[in-house]
Amino acid sequence: GDKAGLAGSHERILLGAGGPETGGEAVRFAFREAGARGCVLDVVRAWRRPAFQAPSDGPARGGPEEWASALLEELLREARTGHPDVRLRPATVEGPAHRVLVDRSAAADLVIVGTRHRAGHPGLQLGRTAHALLHHAQCPVAVVPQRV
Fold it and tell me: Are 27 and 76 in contact (CB under 8 A)?
């Protein structure tokens, strides 16, 4: 990985903001870590443009970027209130989440993502994003399980 990231000298934590089913515990953990370290918390929600968009799916209904922004705001609302001292930089970025977060890990001291327990499967099941980060991130990675 990146020497500055491994040394913790970027003063930045990167949180990959997933959906409500994986994000709650990861968001709380990220805010606690950023507060304890006194660093910036970059929160990124990746989104993708549909391969095909019918004419009736135009701007009046809101596109994927607007949906991603609304989801990001919802995920951060509660944690932001409990941690007013944390410097927060939320962003929505077009692209696959695993690529966006691996690329941005070069400028972070820690990347945090959530995961959930899947019914019928013992233990923790990693999704594509967590798996890619564990293998390719340029800084340490924390995979935070969602409580059942």
Answer: yes
